[in-house]
Amino acid sequence: MDRGHLHEILETILSVPTAPFHEYHIRDVIIRLLDPCSSVKVDEDEFGNLVVRHGDCDGSPGWIFGSHMDHPGFVEVPVESGYHPETFKVRDRFAFLGGVPESYLRQGFPIKEFDQFAMWDLPAFELRGTQIWSRACDDLIGCAVIVALLIALDRSGIELSCSAVFTRAEEVGFVGAIKLAQSWPFKPDACFVSIETSVAVDRAMMGGGPMCRVGDRISTFDHATTASMLAVAQRRSLKIQRALLDRGACEASGLQAYGIRTAGISVPLGNYHNCGEQNLISPEFVELGDIEGLFDLMAAILEEFPKGPGDCSAALRQRFELGLDTHLPFIEDTAGMFHCE
Ligand SMILES: [Zn+2]
After folding, report:
1. Domain chopping of the chain, boundaries
2. Most buried in the list 55, 136, 218, 334, measured by CB within 10 Å?
C-alpha cells in the first residue's frame, strides 16, 4: 500500500501541543485530517476518546489499532481535585503529570504555555538526517501513522475493515483506555494493537524496524495475534524486532485486564519522556525508516489477515512433526528399551 502523505501527516500532528487531559487540539486535527475520507467514520465516546471505523465492517473489525493523544506535561490543577503535587512537580500554576524522574523535573527547564497546559520549550518537529526529533514523539508518532494508514486505505479503495482508537490521558495510568474498556464498542474477540514508541531493550535497536511487543512491564500479550503479526513480517520480508519491552507499560495491559485481546507494536524511541543525557530535558527522537516500516507492517497485517488475527498453530505443528519424522530411526532404535515395540 502506498504510504501517501505519511511525512506531511507526521509533521502536522507532531506540531500540535498536547498534555494529559488536554488532548482537544490533537483530536481536532485528527478529525480534520480524516474528514475527506468517505470510507472512514469518526465518533467520540462519552469520555472524548476517538473511535474510528474504516470500511463496511458492521462495527466488528478484527483489528483495532490504538494510540494515545497525550504526552507528559504541565497542566492546571482543578481546585476541587484536592491534588497536592510535590514541590518539584509544580511550576507557576501548573503541576507535572506523567512519568519523569524527579532529578529531571528539578532542573527548571523552560516551558511553553498553551492556555490551560504547558509543554517543555523544545522543537515540535525537526528532521535531522534520517531522524525525527520532537518534544512529543510518544505517542503522536502512533497517532500519525494510524491516521496515514486510514487515509491510504480510503484512497486505495481497497475493501478492508479495521478500526482505530485515539485515547486520552494514557500517561497518568491508561485513563482513556480504561474508559474504553468499560464500554467496549467492538466485538468481544476483536484485537486491540497498541501502536507506540518505546525504549528498545534486549537486542532490539533503533533503525532495526518496528518492534513486535510480546509484552510490557505488566503483562504478556495475546499469542495468536503476536504470531500473526510476526508471520506477516516473515511472509513479506519486512523488518521486525521481537522484544519484551518491559522498560514501560502500554494501554494493551490496561485493556487486557478487562478481558480484551491485545498486542503491541512499537517504534524504537530515544530520550524517552524527554529524559536526555546528563540529566537534561531533551527532544525525543525516532528513525524515519522505523516509522515507514511500521506503516508497511500495519498495512500488510490488514491485507494478510483481513478478518483479524489468524491461527498460526497448524504451520507450527507441521514444523514440529517434520522434526519428529527426522528422528524416527532414533525412536525405533531405542523402542525396545521403552517397551513400545
Ligand atoms: Zn509515554
Report:
1. 6-69+122-310, 313-341
2. 136
Give the distance (Å) from ligand 1 centre to CA of residue 303. Answer: 29
Q: What is the Å distance from ligand 1's center to 320 Cα? A: 40
- pTM recorded for the entire structure: 0.94
> Tens digits of per-residue pLDDT, 272-297?
999 999 999 999 999 999 999 999 99
Residue 40 Cα to ligand 1 midpoint, Å, equals: 27
Whole-number Å distance, alpha carbon 71 to ligand 1 midpoint, is 6
Architecture of domain 6-69+122-310 in this structure: 3-Layer(aba) Sandwich (3.40)
Q: Is the dihedral of CA 228, 234, 240, 246 positive or negative?
A: positive
Q: Measured in angstroms, how far is the CA atom of residue 259 from the centroid of ligand 1?
A: 23
At 125-173, the pLDDT tens digits run: 999 999 999 999 999 999 999 999 999 999 998 878 899 999 999 999 9
How do residues 238-272 score in pLDDT, each as one tens digit? 999 999 999 889 999 999 999 999 999 999 999 99
For residue 72, report the distance from its CA to the centre of ligand 1, in Å. Answer: 7
CA 169 to ligand 1 centroid distance, Å: 10
CA of 186 to the centre of ligand 1 (A): 25
Distance 65 CA to ligand 1 centre (A): 17
> How far is residue 250's CA from residue 170's CA, in Å, rounded to a whole number?
8
The verdict on whether omega for the bond into residue 43 sits within 30 degrees of 0, i.e. cis, is: no
